């Protein structure tokens, strides 16, 4: 997936589905040195959501939201390479598994 015109990658899943996001560079000659991730709430950086894991050396984010996770979750990942830092913004929209 690629960012939209606003620079945000948008992902839509149903409740209890698992996501895996590869944040690594496409170019092998620009290795990822480190990666940090945050949940953005009211323009403040918070820890990543419960049930998520970030492999900071490989740049892979895993998340399997539990029951009760609905709505939009804004995430930001700060990637450090030998050429500098950049950020990846991701919006995860979680829909109910069943529509009543």
Explain what this protein looks like in three dimensions:
By secondary structure, the protein is mostly beta strands. The protein has a single domain, classed as Immunoglobulins (Immunoglobulin-like, Sandwich). It has no helices and 8 strands. The strands form 2 sheets. A 5-stranded mixed β-sheet has the order 1-8-7-3-4, with no helix packed on it. A 3-stranded antiparallel β-sheet has the order 2-6-5, with no helix packed on it.
Task: Tell me the Rg in angstroms.
Answer: 14 Å
Q: Output mean pLDDT.
A: 87
N-to-C order of helices and strands = EEEEEEEE
CATH architecture: Sandwich
List keywords for this structure.
5-stranded mixed β-sheet; 100 residues; Immunoglobulin-like
